[in-house]
Write a sequence for this structure.
């Protein structure tokens, strides 16, 4: 199991219920691939983007730490790319 950190840029126009559902979907994707979420929280509520992403000028930042088998990372990335509520995602491997 490797440790990872992921930063998500989420659509800013989601309601509170939609945000909670999206955060649950993000965490469930890790759990379904034999991983464990260590920590997940909103990093910044609404920040101006340097350039528009999918016609959005603002974004909500969500930071998550998790552990996952290395071969499951591709499946996680694919699941996040299919989710329309996520504008961008960056996953980095943490050193031990």
């Amino acid at each position: 199991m490797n440790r990872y950190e992921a930063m998500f840029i989420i659509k800013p126009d989601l309601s509170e219920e939609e945000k909670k559902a999206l955060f649950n979907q993000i965490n469930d994707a890790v759990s379904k691939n034999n991983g464990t979420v260590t920590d997940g929280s909103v990093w910044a509520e609404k920040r101006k983007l340097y350039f528009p992403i999918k016609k959005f000028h603002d974004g909500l930042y969500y930071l998550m730490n998790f552990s996952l088998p290395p071969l499951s990372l591709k499946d996680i990335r694919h699941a996040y790319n299919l989710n329309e509520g996520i504008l961008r995602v960056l996953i980095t491997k943490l050193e031990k």
Summary: The two ends are 11 Å apart (CA to CA). The longest helix spans residues 16-32.
